[in-house]
Design goal:
Length: 388
């Protein structure tokens, strides 16, 4: 771990704790209880002033290592608003990583530079409504089509759970051609991409909602395709393992903060003649939190190290996504329990993080899909060992 990365993480942590956290009480919220554009703009002005805007990208546009990124993103996650303020939030962080790896110089200039600067936000159009038989955790079920038309491609379909679509300026759209899956970059808003529904969901840390959109005769210049026709799933894999891991990083930061809040409460609150911390039932819950938080940190570091060695780390990231999301759910749940009525109120961020962690267990594949994938690997390994 370099000294520079440690110093960046320390600056991000100080910024989130001292500057961002007070904004958690800011009343400027939309009808989905998400922070408004005005709040985000204010936070980003402060982030630039503190030199913590997009802190995982160096001045020369190179990316921190995955292990270094973990330090920084855990620090940014100490508040639900931290990733938005520092430009480390999903889906932008994952889209920045993808474009930095596979985008042409022209596409980087047009689409990546505004994302890194924090002057634009993005959406990733992949999931589709189950009612249409569309893709979710199984991307092979994709129904959205793209067909060549001169020097353009024409895309038609329907997408859902598109995070941030209502406020994004850049979109990455996945569709299927005769050659296979394709991935395109588009400017937003676009009249051919129409938001038809923005559901109220259990989580509200990400502005722009999780929209359902109709895509009708969307014309995209051919030079805005990433790679060649049929390479969309390959590029999705470039993004997938790191994106699973960065979710774990941010929410680990949130649960570290929740545990601090619950610990402070337990050491101040008295009941039945002594402080809550002195009741074994409470003390043991906080002890279990420390165990789960440390195990989560080590799993993240293990997978980050595999990525830094140049491995695909699909198996490691699946294991880490399951282990960390479920461990953090336990941590958040215990924090609520320790704090009683205060834990289920909006007096602290604990209640929000508890809700957000529940959604996180579904982001980038639910635990069951990852366990199924791991089980298939176990079977393949056994068959190979037996010469089957």
């Amino acid at each position: 771990m370099t000294e520079s990365a440690t110093e960046i993480a320390a600056r991000v942590e100080a910024f989130v704790r001292d500057i961002v956290a007070p904004f958690e009480k800011d009343p400027r919220r939309d009808d989905h209880n998400c922070p408004t554009e005005e709040v985000i703009a204010d936070l980003r002005v402060l982030a630039r002033k503190a030199d913590v805007m997009t802190p995982h990208i160096r001045a020369d546009d190179s990316h921190l290592t995955h292990r270094e990124t973990a330090q920084v993103l855990i620090a940014s996650g100490l508040s639900p608003l931290g990733p938005l303020a520092c430009n480390t939030a999903a889906p932008d962080e994952g889209n920045i990583y993808l474009l930095g790896k596979v985008g042409s110089e022209d596409l980087k200039r047009r689409f990546l530079d505004p994302l890194v600067a924090g002057t634009a936000r993005s959406a990733f159009f992949m999931s589709e409504p189950w009612e249409d038989g569309g893709s979710g955790s199984d991307p092979s079920m994709m129904q959205t089509t793209c067909k060549p038309d001169g020097n353009h491609w024409v895309v038609n379909g329907r997408k859902c759970w598109i995070t941030g679509a209502a406020q994004a300026q850049i979109g990455i759209v996945m569709a299927k051609a005769e050659q296979g899956a394709c991935m395109f970059l588009v400017d937003l808003p676009n009249p051919a991409i129409r938001i038809v529904h923005q559901p109220k969901t259990i989580d509200n840390s990400l502005p722009g909602g999780h929209c359902t959109v109709d895509i009708e005769n969307l014309r995209i210049p051919a030079d805005q395709m990433l790679g060649e026709p049929g390479e969309g799933f390959k590029y999705a894999q470039v993004r997938l393992a790191p994106a699973r891991l960065t979710h774990c990083m941010r929410w680990l930061g949130a649960c570290i903060r929740c545990n601090e809040i619950a610990t402070d409460y337990a050491n101040r609150r008295r009941a039945f003649g002594k402080h809550l911390i002195d009741h074994e039932g409470v003390g043991f819950m906080l002890a279990d939190n420390l165990i789960d938080l440390q195990q989560a940190r080590l799993m993240i570091d293990w997978t980050a190290d595999a990525l830094d060695r140049g491995e695909r780390a699909g198996r490691e990231s699946s294991m880490t996504k399951v282990a960390v999301s479920e461990a953090l759910m336990r941590v958040a749940d215990r924090c609520v329990q320790v704090m009683g009525g205060t834990g289920v109120s909006d007096a602290t961020i604990v209640e929000q993080v508890f809700r957000e962690i529940r959604a996180f267990r579904i982001y980038d594949g639910p635990s069951e899909v990852h366990r199924w994938s791991l089980a298939k690997g176990i079977k393949r390994h056994w068959e190979k060992s037996q010469g089957v």
